[in-house]
Amino acid sequence: MKIKKNTLRVTALCAAVGVLSLSLSGCGGSNAAQAKDAKDSKPDVVNAVPVETAKAARGQIAASYNGTATLTADHEAQVSAKTTGVLIKLFVEEGQAVKAGQVLAQLEQDTARAKLAQSEAQMRKADASFAYNEKAIQKQLIPQRDYDQTKFDMQNLRAAYEEARLNLQFTTITAPVDGVIAERSVKLGNLIQVNQNLFRIVGMDPLQAVLNVPERQLGILKAGQTVALEADALPGQKFTGNILRIAPVVDSASGTFRVTCEFHDKTATLKPGMFGRIGIVYDQRADALTVPRSALVEEDGETAVFVVEKGVEKPADDAKKDGAKKDDAKKPDAKVADAGKGETKPAVPGLVAHRKLVKVGYSDGDKVEIRSGIDEGTQVITVGRNAVRDGTAVQVLNADNKDKDKQLAQKTPEEKKG
What we know:
- The chain is α+β, with helices and mostly antiparallel strands.
- It has 4 domains: about 50-60 and about 290-415, Beta Barrel (conserved putative lor/sdh protein from methanococcus maripaludis s2 fold); about 65-75 and about 205-285, Elongation Factor Tu (Ef-tu), domain 3 (Beta Barrel), CATH 2.40.30; about 80-105 and about 170-200, CATH 2.40.50.100; about 110-170, Helix hairpin bin (Helix Hairpins).
- About 30% of the residues lie in helices and about 35% in strands.
- The protein has 7 helices and 24 strands.
- The chain has helices at about 1-40, 110-140, 145-170, 315-320, 325-330, 400-410, 415; strands at about 50-55, 55-75, 75-80, 85-90, 95-100, 105, 170-175, 180-185, 190, 195-200, 205-215, 225-230, 240-245, 255-265, 275-290, 295-300, 300-310, 335, 345, 350-355, 360-365, 365-370, 380-385, 395.
- It has a 6-stranded mixed beta sheet, covered by helices on one side. The chain has a 6-stranded antiparallel beta barrel with strand order 2-11-14-13-12-15.
- Helix 2 runs antiparallel to helix 3 (about 145-170).
- It is elongated and about 125 Å long.
């Protein structure tokens, strides 16, 4: 009997627990439904892409060709000995500027003077013999052969005398050109041989630089155009020159032609052998519409920019006709229902990126000329352009553009054009 009563108690308890579980699950489902309804009632927030912009502005831009080259001397001379002798005097040192004809060194002259005196005596003897035979041949006192022999001997000894005189002159070493002594290869007391190198003279003014320019520039660059030089060894300094000459042919192997530039530096600051960056400006525009180079987007052979404009508002009726999709609720121009009054009011329109095809012109550093596609004052995206597409909502982060962005958001496209 007791076992039967216990069984009934357990059965009743299980039934009570089941009822309580059903009640709790019902309450939980109601709360979840309410939370879902509350979540769905909240308006979606637009995830705007952060970007930085710059304004398309008018200014000066120049078309130029830039290249690198090594400076070389317009003229250079290797001074060599033309006679033999001992070096007894040095009048110049390395780094000293010299003029053409200036004495650089002196060889001993005793041997050269003795040879000159000997040649002179032999020449005078030959002259006297020839003068005697010239009178004798007129009187037919000597045969023609003897007369011709004395004439040839006289001419030969005169040439020997001239050679001896030149050898005496060659003992004095002079500069053949203006320039600077770049190298001295001998010392006092050295026995100098014929054709031995003594000095190297390098001209410092003018200096030249040869550019290998692509053939597409052949019809643009002209002799006489101004060029600017910046040497790596002289930071912050600029030097002006001009195009001296242009090669009339194009190298078939490299597809380039030679452009020789010339620079006159009276201060002698530039040195041969310096490496320089050369710019040749061949055209300028004083009132060109320009944007930063970082704003350009190259796709499928087209050049475009992303401009920032105010999003276009969309009436509530149009939104309903579109089926009141969830994506429409995310757009900045969608209307949001006022939950308290049951009325609708337009959301504050945001900023949207639009892709605009442009035609570019000259490039100058980080600036690029825009010849068509956008107007002056247009805000173009310079940072973050790879993360946006046509119609993407954006947020401009430039501190100096915040006020401009507010004004832009308050204007319609028609007002901006006006």
